[in-house]
Amino acid sequence: MASLRTADSRLRSYFKENYIPQVCEALLCGLLITCPEDPLKYLQKMIITIMENGLESLLWDMCIDPSMKPKIRRLSETYMEQLFGLDDQLMTPELMIKACTFYTGHLVKTHFCIWRDIAIPLINEEDILAEKMEKAIEYDNFRLQKYVFRLWHSYAAGQKKLLTEALLRIRKMCHHYKLIITLTKWRDKARYEYKKREDELMLKHELQLRKWRSKVKVAAKEEPIPPGHSLSKASLLGEIPECDISLLPERAVSQIFYYLTLRELVICGQVCHSWMLMTQASSLWNSIDFSTVKNIITDKYIVSTLQRWRLNVLRLNFRGCLLRSKTLRSVSLCRNLQELNVSDCPTLTDESMRYISEGCAGVLYLNLSNTTITNRTMRLLPRWHSQHFFCHSVLTVYSWSLFNLFCLMRYFPNLQNLSLAYCRKFTDKGLRYLNLGNGCHKLIYLDLSGCTQISVQGFRNIANSCTGIMHLTINDMPTLTDNCVKVLAEKCTRITSIVFIGAPHISDCAFKALSTCNLRKIRFEGNKRITDACFKYIKNYPNINHIYMVDCKRITDGSLKSLSPLKQLTVLNLANCIRIGDVGLKQFLDGPVSTRIRELNLSNCIHLSDASIVKLSERCSNLNYLSLRNCEYLTDLGIEHIVYIFSLVSVDLSGTNISNEGLMTLSRHKKLKELSLSECYKITDVGIQAFCKGSLILEHLDVSYCPQLSDEIIKALAIYCIYLTSLSIAGCPKITDSAMEMLSAKCHYLHILDISGCVLLTDQMLEDLQMGCKQLRILKMQYCRLISKEAARRMSSMVQQQEYNPNDPPLWFGYDYEGKPLTKQEITPLKEDEEITVTDSIYSGEEEVV
Prior knowledge:
The chain is α/β, with parallel strands linked by helices. The chain has a 21-stranded mixed beta sheet, with helices on one face. β2 (315-317), α12 and β3 form a beta-alpha-beta unit.
């Protein structure tokens, strides 16, 4: 539609007067929004509506249904005025006149005010200037004060800061001075108390030693000591203590007699009538160990004992006993028997085993290791009834050992622990009997060590019948292969513990096969086929807590890295794995396993250094046992960090470069109970003395083959370490009888003593041990030429195990029979084809050597 801006004025007026744009706008808006089906009728209807309402009330949305009206803001009175060009110009003449008038008036007013200010002089100008000057001065003073105050504030803040710092320094100096005074007084007091305690301890030691010597002399004068007897504590004290054991509670009496051997219990029963009644308590005869008296006990006594206590006996041990078959049959009287050990019994026969199996059906533990079985089988065949034909066809070919296995499985339905170690009479077909009858389905522990006759088929028979095995021990088995382990792992998925010591043909494939089992304990030793790859399978055992991989030469640092994620590992033994170094141990300790590890054996890992010990002290907060034997690069710096492993109770530093400084540092630990320093040539008496002063709870000490040590270490042990239970001074030729006298007088809890190679010790030392060390159980006296055979024979009645050899020490000891060091020319290397025979005499408490 063309614009009407240039149209005739009358036409424009006509449009405005008759509201033509508003009518068109309303109609068009209605059409556009409503979109009626018949537009003409819609327009007719709307026009009529507009006529009825009048043009004055016309709106642009009048023709739109109320529900469809758009919600917009009205910008102007009408939109059609612009469409038809009827709207007036924004700048009309009236508006221009009005704007010009306003501008002109404003301009006149502005210029008039300026003219007035300039043309008409001020009446009170001086007062105004004075007032302005006063304000200016006041403002200037304010700015000056503000500037001065700012400078003063900065200066005051700086001075305050300096005063605060000076005050802090003065306080620190005063506190430091007070600390110095306090520490000085504490140090003086500690030194005084330490010296006083040392003096009191030395005085007490001297008094006890002097009293002990005087009592020994008096007792020796009054009554000579017969051979095979020793002075009692009562004789040393000169009085007989009054003690009636019958007054003690029955439970306490039973506990006391429980620690006695069978021989000691019988002797106590012969003291008096009350003691006899106390030794007849049924609880004391639940467990009978005949192996401790195997060389002196008679068959008649065994039979009578078993007949008397047949209802109470739960555990029997006949290990190594040489008994008649009739005696072994008496075991069948013990109907409640649960544990039976007949290992190393050369007289065990088939018939005896049959009687035992028929009478003791409740046996849970059975040890038949290293036993021999005869071929007397035909007379037992009629007892098998329905199995007669089968047994006849088999037993006529095989030995009684197969039939004996069948007997075990039939009459021991609850058997849980079975040891067939070194029993080489049965074959693979004999192992098929394990699955007959009730079988051995409850078997948990099985020991097949040394049974080299078992092949893969034999292990398959075991796997088919003993699926519940959890603990498997197969030592000294050169014929054991990966296939044997595979057939076991396929069926025996409950295996948690394996011990394969002396199985050189086991490789990484065995660990892959065992990945289906929930292993918790692994023991391998002397295997050269196991590599780092096996540890990749081991890390898939989430519950494993014990790894024993000794003398596996192909294990490297990569194995330790694979073990680091194991969260349950508590025991790790990698002794003689010479390829392990600091890098592997660091990677191992960086994992979560470091917080759980309790025992760590890294003996002969020669590449380890002080850096490994630093890492151990940082990560292993719960480590109890540590072995670093023969780690040549370990020095006193590493020993200093061992002190910070506060949970440590046992440490082996044999063959290291530890010196006296390291021992002095180690003495600060205070909690060590076991220490091994064998072949540590840099330590002296001073270092051992310093260590003993700080280790009052020491129980085990090994300083063997340290020829530089003398009597001073024994004196230090006697003074400070009175709770010592085990001592090894083998290869220390400077030890004399006077030192051993002090040890016997003070260390009454000594159980194990090794004095092999102490060439200056005589019979007097044995007499002192008999008088002072009543609890001594194991005594080793190899190469002690000044100790006579008679004295050794008398001493054998005091101990359970004794080793004695009066020969001169061998050349590798490094000194001669007088204790003098040998020169390099005197120490000649032994030829490979040269054989040296050493005669050992071992005395026990039950046997005397003629």
